[in-house]
Amino acid sequence: MSTFVLMMNKGLSVLVYSIAVVLMVSCKTAGIISATQFNLHQDYCAPTSVNSYSASNFPVANTDSLLAQDTLLKQYFSTHFILMANGTGTLKLLYGAMDCKRDTSLRGRIRMVEIKNEIQQRITLFRTELDGVAAELDCQGERCDQLASYLDDLNRKRNTRLTIGSIILGSVTTVAIVVAHNGNAQNTISIAGGLLTAGLGATTINPAGKKVNYEHTRNLLEDIWFTPQHSRVYPPSVWYILTNRNFTNNKDVTLVESIKKRWTEFQFNNHVDSAKVKLLFHGGGIYTADDLHTRSNMLNQLQSTIRSVNQDLQGLLLAMDHNL
Asked: What are the sequence ranges of the domains in the chain?
């Protein structure tokens, strides 16, 4: 009988040791998934070619001077729509259309048709610019969501293994304590089992989680955060509207400032450290699943803001249709 108990104690000790080793290996710091594994070094969301814009594509920057000098359009259009015309590159055409409106000759009517066609072309170009930016933001957001979901799935499976291992370890520890007759052995098994179980529980609650090396040399969030005078990634017309206070409801802040304020409050809880700024608003780096979810949310919010400009564009078109 004593031989049987000795063998049982030895077997349980080996079993506990084996489970502990396996679980400790499972609890090690999670690895970093390389960019090459998912072909992340290639940005398939970026445009295939970089568009160049001439000086004529840039809206008039001095809005106050523009409005002060105008005496004609104010009679027919609100300040908001005058600035919208400036942003879409149709302001000079509007002046020309108003002049032609007073010319009832055949030549004047033909010129009016030509100007309206040019206005439609400019509006179409502006819409494609808006849609292009929105499409790239949507693509980048989906890309982040896919990576985040993949990491979430890996972390979920890891936590499941840790939970099951913790249950098994707790059960084996209990059996080992009952079978062991030596008081010192019982204490050793109890302490070791308790520590291992607690360690596994803590790891499950706060897992290290898998990470991915995600770099983005073309970063649509960068110019929004740092707000340069001229954007490297946004078309001049779109950037003009994003950085002009007349295109927000209260006209106290620009669309860019409004976006940054929401990000600071809701994404960063009013605390943005330098590491997060470097990760999200520069060239990227090592992302956790939570970081990817944060980036995806920011891209989606920015996309919504970009798409909302269509409402201003619709208002301008209706005003043109009424007054031309």
From this structure: 2-54+126-323, 56-125
